[in-house]
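Board notes, transcribed. Complex of a protein with manganese (II) ion.
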Amino acid sequence: MARISWLVSPPVTALVSRRNTAPPQPRATKFHRTIFISDVHLGMRGCKADMLLDFLQTNSCHTLYLVGDIVDGWALKRRWFWPEAHNRVVLEILRKVDEGTQVVFVPGNHDEFARGFCGRNYSGIDVVREYIHETADGKRLLVIHGDQFDGVIEFARWLAHLGAWAYDRALQINEILHGIRRALGLPYWSLSNYLKHAVKNAVEYVCRFEEAVAHAAESRGLDGVVCGHIHQAAIRQIGNVLYLNDGDWVESCTALVEDARGHLEIVRWAAPTATPAYDRSIGQAAPVPA
Ligand SMILES: [Mn+2]
C-alpha cells in the first residue's frame, strides 16, 4: 500500500517521511471552530513564519481556511528563498490535515499559480476559487482573497488623477461659463463645484476596497465576506454585510477565528509562546536553482 501511494504521489510521501523524523512537541492548544489566515507570503523575506508556526502549533480547528497569498510565487520568481521555517509552516498545515482538520485553500494573486488547480484536492487540501463558509450561527460568508477588486481600486486611482486634472480645467472653464451665463442673465452655477462633488463621491465610493468587497457579498445575498489581500485585519459591518479581513503574517500577524457559537474575532499573535523546536541557523537563502 505504501509503495502504491509512493507511486501515485511521491512528493507527499517525501514530506510525510520528513515529518516523521521530527515529531512536533506536544503543546497546549486552543480549539476554534474555524481559523482563517491569509497573506503569509512564504518564500518572501518578510514572512513571519516563526510566528505563524507558533500560532498553528497552539491553535487547532475544525476548518482551516488559507485565504490566499500563502506562498509568494512572485517573490520566489525573483529570488529563490525557502528557509526551514517556511517548510515547517507547510508541514504543520499537513499535520493538521492528518489530524482531521478540513483545510481549504483559496489562492490569491501571489499564489495565482494554484488557481489552475481549483476544484482539486492536494494532500487533503481543497483548492477552490472561492468558498461559502457557514458559521455556527448560520451566517453565510463568502471567502475570497480580494485581489479581484484591484481593478476597481486601480480605476479609482486613475479616476482620482483624472478628477484632479479635470477640477483644474473646470475652474478655468467655470470662469468662461460664468461670464456667458452672466451675459445671458442666468444665475451663478459652478461647474467646478458640481464636478468636485461628483468626482469626490465616485472616488470615495469605488476606492474603498472594503466597501467593494462587501458589496460583492451583498449582491449575492450573503451575510458577509472574509478576505485578505490588503494586509489590514478588520471586522466591521458595512450596510447589511459583515466585512471580515484576516490580516497578514508579514506585518501584523493576525488571524480570524470563529468559536463554537459562531462568534468571530481577530487574533493578534504577539510573540511566540515558546522557541520553535528547530535550528534557526538553517533559515538562510537557498542558492538560485539553475
Ligand atoms: Mn494579495
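Residues 68-69, 108-110, 145, 147, 229 surround manganese (II) ion (CB under 6 Å). Helices lie at 2-8, 10-21, 49-58, 73-78, 84-99, 150-183, 191-206, 209-219.
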